[in-house]
Design brief:
Elements lengths: L1 E7 L6 H14 L4 E4 L2 E2 L2 E4 L2 E4 H10 L5 H4 L2 E2 L2 H8 L6 H12 L5 E5 L15 H8 L2 E7 L6 H11 L3 E7 L3 H17 L4 E4 L4 H4 L1 E2 H8 L2 E4 L7 E2 L1 E4 L4 H10 L3 E6 L3 H9 L5 E4 L6 H10 L3 E3 L4 H14 L5 H14 L2 H8 L2
Parallel strand pairs: 1-7, 1-8, 2-7, 3-6, 8-9, 9-10, 14-15, 15-16, 16-17
Antiparallel strand pairs: 4-5, 11-13, 12-17
Protein name: DRTGG domain-containing protein
Subunit structure: Homohexamer.
Length: about 350
């Protein structure tokens, strides 16, 4: 039996996407796959049993039905943190080992999903990535998602900690303007220092997409018009604070963008509605006039009203696009295609000894 730990340099780097896609790929190759998320950061319940929401989702997609308390033996709740900081949480690493031994009995490969930062998250209670990986003898793949820069110092530290058990790194969400540097400077540097680059994944609009309903919930807003279309997806956003003429120029290039606009800017609102925007997000807790509401209903464009100002909503939208979870079949299919097109699966298999 082989164990593979999927970790990352930061939170929300794409661990679930990689773990799920690799698990499905292994299954397609005829391997019996087990899954485990040893440390859960998103508590949830399955019946009366506490587990992790991400783990519930991945188990379902992979067709598994294991005990949630085994799949995620350590769930980070406020109560757990309080006890851990007081030195009263026992030995959670032993719970992880016992659960792993039980779940891995009848499988060919165990895919382990990490939580937060591989090197740091869980250090305070002894369940950080290196500790778990070394205890269980796991091979490791790290995900590094681009955010202004890549974490090559972090990757070098991980290599020092893990040695040959680090199969390599997958770079995620790499924009076009830094692709050349990643391929021709960073990749050769890392590989010359023993860190193999297993894949370089470009940004993908579908993977960043979110339904209007989810978007409203995340923004703490209220859908006041055409709620029947709340399952439509939004791929990006555009701020409508400029003059109408300038807005129209930008809007023509971003047709599937949610429009963030002040509730008092009926001129921009009307242009966005007539232009077929997927939804309007009206800021400042200001409701639109009757003309805008009527056109919204006729054209089938939902309107969300939020309390925050336009700048605050825009910052929240940026965070939502980075942190929104992999949760629907469209994204699962897209993730699978992305992995197949941009990740060296053969190198992963060789690193695992398959």
């Amino acid at each position: 039996m082989i164990g593979l730990y999927i970790g990352s340099t930061t939170g929300y780097a794409g661990k679930n996407m990689i773990a799920l896609s690799l698990g499905m790929k292994f299954q397609k190759d005829g391997l019996k796959v087990g899954y485990m998320k040893p440390v859960g950061a998103v508590p949830g319940k399955a019946g009366e049993k506490v587990g992790d929401e991400d783990a519930f989702f991945l188990q379902e997609v992979l067709g598994l039905n294991e005990d949630p308390t085994l799949v995620t033996p350590v769930v980070i709740t406020h109560d757990f943190k309080t006890k851990a900081l007081a030195g009263q949480c026992g030995t959670p690493i032993l719970k992880i080992r016992q659960a792993y031994e039980q779940l891995s009995k009848d499988v060919d490969i165990m895919v382990m999903g990490g939580s937060g930062s591989f090197l740091h998250s869980g250090k305070y209670c002894g369940v950080d990535g290196p500790t778990v990986a070394k205890l269980l003898g796991l091979k490791t793949i790290l995900i590094d998602r681009y955010s202004k820069e890549l974490n090559y110092d972090y990757l070098m530290s991980a290599k020092e900690s893990l040695g040959d058990s680090l199969i390599g790194v997958i770079f995620n969400d790499i924009p076009l303007h830094v692709m050349d540097e990643v391929q021709n400077v960073i990749k050769p540097f890392l590989e010359n220092n023993g860190v193999k680059v297993l894949g370089i994944i470009p940004p993908d609009a579908i993977m960043r997409a979110i339904t209007i309903r989810d978007l409203s919930n995340r923004l703490g807003g209220k859908i006041i018009s055409v709620s029947s279309k709340a399952d439509k997806i939004v791929e990006s956003f555009l701020i409508g604070t400029m003059q109408v003429e300038n807005f129209m120029t930008h809007f023509k290039k971003n047709k599937n963008a949610a429009i963030i606009v002040g509730g008092d800017r009926s001129d921009v609102q009307l242009v966005a509605l007539e232009g077929g925007a997927p939804c309007l997000i009206l800021t400042g807790n200001l409701y639109p006039n009757d003309i805008i509401l009527t056109r919204s209903e006729i054209l089938g464009v939902p309107i969300i009203v939020v309390r925050d100002d336009t700048y605050t909503v825009a910052k929240k939208m940026e965070n939502i696009q980075v942190s929104h979870k992999l949760r629907d079949i469209v994204k699962i299919n897209q993730a699978t295609q992305i992995i197949n097109s941009n990740v060296d699966f053969q190198a992963i298999k060789e690193g695992l000894g398959l």
